Amino acid sequence: MTGKRADSAASFVPEGADLAALRRAAASCEGCRLHVPATRTVFGAGPPDARLVLVGEQPGDVEDREGEPFVGPAGRLLDKALAETGLDRAGVYLTNAVKHFKFEERGKRRIHKSPTRGEVVACLPWLEAELAQVEPDLVVCLGATAAKAVLGTSFKVTEQRGLLQHVGEQAVIATVHPSAILRAPDRDEAYRGFVADLRVVHDHLYASS
């Protein structure tokens, strides 16, 4: 061990660092035990001056192997929805509340496991540092884990999705995670709801231009 706390990423986050320096520092984060089985840290990616930040739960299997956020099946569905609503992924900063892939092994497969609240809290300093650097006009939380990380544990995506919220001066909208659409009994209906939420995101961004 490095002598740094193993229950928080706070001491691994370099003060005042830009996104490139934060990414480098996050590669050696040991702020919780999730770094042990994961292949690598999957840090955020996108323009440092993005107006829109999308926050998911954690990287998946493909993201863990490739080292970039939202490049697996859920990421492809997200790309489709962004394009359909006039939001350019190239102009979006994408990240996750938790930077390591949490999973259980079943044979040769690695199956996603949701992070605990303690793991989310431990990783939160990275997200806070990213948001402080990007200073987006709007943060979109994808799924309950991301929404609770940003908006607090009482927030319920099922009841408050698509509604504009504020954390201090930061505007926030929560919706479902694209992976939830892939698991939905009626994918078409779930996708339409997701697109409707992203249209709210689009309208808010352009209304504030």
UniProtKB/TrEMBL annotation:
UniProt entry keywords in alphabetical sequence: 4Fe-4S, DNA damage, DNA repair, Hydrolase, Iron, Iron-sulfur, Metal-binding, Nucleotidyltransferase, Transferase
Pfam families: UDG
Highest taxon of the lineage: Bacteria
Domain named Uracil-DNA glycosylase-like: residues: 43-199
Family matches, as InterPro entries: UDG_Type-4/5, Ura-DNA_glyco_family4, Uracil-DNA_glycosylase-like, Uracil-DNA_glycosylase-like_sf
MF term (GO), any: DNA-directed DNA polymerase activity
Family to which the UniProt record says this protein belongs: Belongs to the uracil-DNA glycosylase (UDG) superfamily. Type 4 (UDGa) family.
Protein name stated in the entry: Type-4 uracil-DNA glycosylase
Source organism per UniProt: Saccharothrix longispora
Lineage: Bacteria, Bacillati, Actinomycetota, Actinomycetes, Pseudonocardiales
